[in-house]
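Minutes, project check-in
Item: structure for the 442-residue chain
Input as provided by the requester:
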Amino acid sequence: MIGQVTFTSELACINCDRTYTMDAVRYLCDCGGLLEVRHNEAAIVSRSPSEWQGLFESRYRSSVHPYSSGVWGKKEWVLPGISESNVVTLGEGATPMLPVPRLAAELGVRDIRVKQCGVSHTGSFKDLGMTVLVSHVVHLRSLGVPIRAVACASTGDTSAALAAYAASAGIPTVVFLPAGKISNAQLSQPVSNGSVVLSLDTDFDGCMEIVKAVTADQSIYLANSMNPLRIEGQKTISIEICQQLGWDLPDWLVIPGGNLGNVSALAAGLDLLKLSGITRKSPRILLAQSANANPMYLSYQNDFKFQSVPAKTTLASAIQIGNPVSFPRAVRALQAYNGVVDQATEQELSDAAARADRHGLFNDPHTGVALAAMMKQIEKGTIKRDESVVVISTAHGLKFQEFKSGYHAGALPGVQGKHRNEIIRLPADVSAVKKALDAALV
């Protein structure tokens, strides 16, 4: 509370504007529309931009619970009604944003930075949303709401985040995974954290249909991005980027998209930055999809008329989704921020990830999709030479060792790596080593 103004929030339908209390266990409006969390705007504007900046700066990387989290350092803008004792954090957020000036010079733009959201407890940006969702479940249970477990469908990263945060809170979890479609590292995470792991003979969209049916019984709580609580944590990416740029924003934000909650969250954060008066700048958003799972790209080409697709196998497995549940939210976000949608082939995403790795990064395939889309839009002239770009890296490359090693070994199906760096096998002989070094260090 500031003066007589109270920080509050409610659930609201993006279609009909009907509202519900935050303590209601629901994911859709009665009209079938998606819900969002809406905050008391009067409370946000009651504090000046400089006051907000000072507050957020004072909490950044704090050792005081819950502000050790980059998400909960923005608590008034995220989930103001929750008790700090119910907050479950694993130190998420406050992640690095790395400049890559040589890559920017190669591509012919003023500035490129990569926001490393995968530098997080479970290795992906999904931690940002899951800290909020699981904390909210703890809050609901403290009110006597009979939630016995939390469940999600996942292509890997969501299940890892849910399993870790719920395990920390002592809440049982159930995860539905498409059999054979996630990396070994991703599979091991929910298993290690004690989840009930169900591997189904279907794709993500099939898993999503089953988890929606299972969670119709409100004793099992839905943790997918259809749930607006996830968006609340993920939107802090925008706020954190602004803070790390000295309370400014780039000309472009580039993000990979699968179920499309991420681009919706990006816009939600930008909306609050403008509402608060911290910035009036409206960066354009470039949403990147795999060409093998591209429903938003196809819809964008057709005036946003929704077109689901059968998602084909892609190296960017976390966005191998053909029927994204957050499509309406994403359309609204792209329209509000003059958005562009592009796609990347398996060859393009693999080469883009490897090329950027030569600048000190270690990119997962989904970041490769974003980088490839950015490179294509620079080549087309949509992203101009005097503009700045921030690319959202959604997961850590260490979760995708098969992708990284397979590229450089020439073992990725259908991919001829332009930036391969093969391991040189030699006898333990000084002359052979010197000869190899003379050839390599030219």
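Outcome recorded: The chain is about 40% helix and 15% strand.
No further action items on this chain.
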